[in-house]
Write a structure and sequence with these properties.
binds biotin; five-stranded antiparallel sheet; BirA Bifunctional Protein, domain 2; seven-stranded mixed sheet; alpha+beta; SH3 type barrels; Arc Repressor Mutant, subunit A
């Protein structure tokens, strides 16, 4: 009942909601308006009351709440179930355990903090409480449509779209798995594959630095990373960002399942931070330097080498060592 009240309060924002409308949102069989308001305030919502009993929603808690995220979400697969934890080792660990216990495809795990958050190639991932989106999604694509590199790219595209929709900021993809604003990393994507009888699950992990101040970032990333709030110059509504991200992931997952390669390539090229840049990459311990001539989900990235020949790199074992767009 308090959720209908919450929706009604939200719809009246930034103005006042007449008391009679609040009463009817709670309904005659509910706990009554004073109790519904008490429950919302206990969850951290700030609600003002005027002399004539009108109500105005002034602030929402900056806590992730599964019901709140699910409400108003019209996705086909991603976000069918949403589970929020306060503290986990890694959301990818939790979603992996749930997958083994038969959790359905599309389940999303979010945590306020991770004690052992991980990035690509065994690196750690800084995940302080309440400052970011630390999230994993369980995907179980049909056999032969479960490519890790393509899933990493659609993850990056969804993050970039969600950032643009929520903040207006333009976020680019620095192949293979970084999302950057103004050359600084704001988000990363980590896709891990788990074999199961009859196929394999993909654990799509996404980490976004949302509301950390620049001075809060650990020294080892302070010069190369930033957060959305720093880039936007104002705090970002995390629940709203998560909802938008789930909708974008659902859309991009559908595009991938439909094998609409042209759309993925077109959007990747448009938002690539590496296309046309000189980069150094490593594959199976060997380093290669060249200019990125093209990006394509089928062939990977095409690197023009110093002798003018083109070499393609694709797969999970490639790492970007350096690039002239780092700064
Ligand atoms: C990278 O850029 O190296 C990838 C970072 C991925 C971080 C996310 S946070 C949620 C999920 N759980 C993890 O332990 N890692 C991913």
């Amino acid at each position: 009942m308090s959720d209908r009240l919450l929706d009604t309060l939200r719809s009246a924002r930034p103005g006042w909601l007449p008391r009679a409308r609040a009463e009817s949102a709670v309904g005659p069989s509910g706990p009554g308006l004073p109790e519904a308001l008490r429950r919302l305030r206990a969850r951290g919502f700030r609600i003002d009351e005027s002399d004539d009993g009108g109500l105005a929603l002034r602030g929402e808690p900056d806590l992730l709440d599964a019901d709140d995220i699910r409400r108003g979400l019209h996705t086909r697969v991603v976000g069918r179930r949403v589970r929020v934890f306060q503290r986990v080792t890694s959301t990818n660990d939790v979603i992996g355990d749930l997958a083994r216990q038969g959790e359905p495809e599309g389940t999303v795990v979010l945590a306020e903090t991770q004690t052992e958050g991980r990035g690509r190639r065994g690196r750690g991932w800084w995940s302080p409480p309440g400052k970011g989106v630390w999230m994993s999604v369980l995907l179980s694509p049909p056999v032969r449509r479960g490519s890790v590199p393509v899933t990493t790219i659609i993850g990056g595209l969804a993050v970039s779209d969600a950032i643009r929709a929520s903040t207006g900021l333009s976020a680019l993809i620095r192949w293979p798995n970084d999302v950057v604003i103004g050359g600084r990393k704001v988000a990363g994507v980590l896709v891990e594959a788990h074999q199961r009888p009859g196929g394999r699950d993909l654990l799509l992990g996404i980490g976004i630095d949302v509301n950390a101040g620049q001075d809060e970032l650990p020294p080892e990333i302070a010069d190369i990373a930033t957060s959305l709030s720093e880039a936007a110059g104002e705090p970002i509504d995390r629940p709203e960002l998560v909802r938008t991200l789930l909708a974008e992931l659902d859309r991009w997952y559908r595009i991938k399942l439909d094998r609409d390669i042209d759309t993925i390539n077109e959007q990747w090229r448009e938002r690539s931070a590496t296309l046309g840049r000189r980069i150094v990459l490593e594959e199976h311990g060997r380093r290669f330097e060249g200019t990125v001539a093209d990006v394509d989900v089928r062939f990977g990235i095409a690197l023009r080498m110093s002798r003018g020949n083109i070499r393609h790199f694709r797969g999970e074992h490639i790492s970007l060592i350096g690039s002239d767009c780092d700064g």
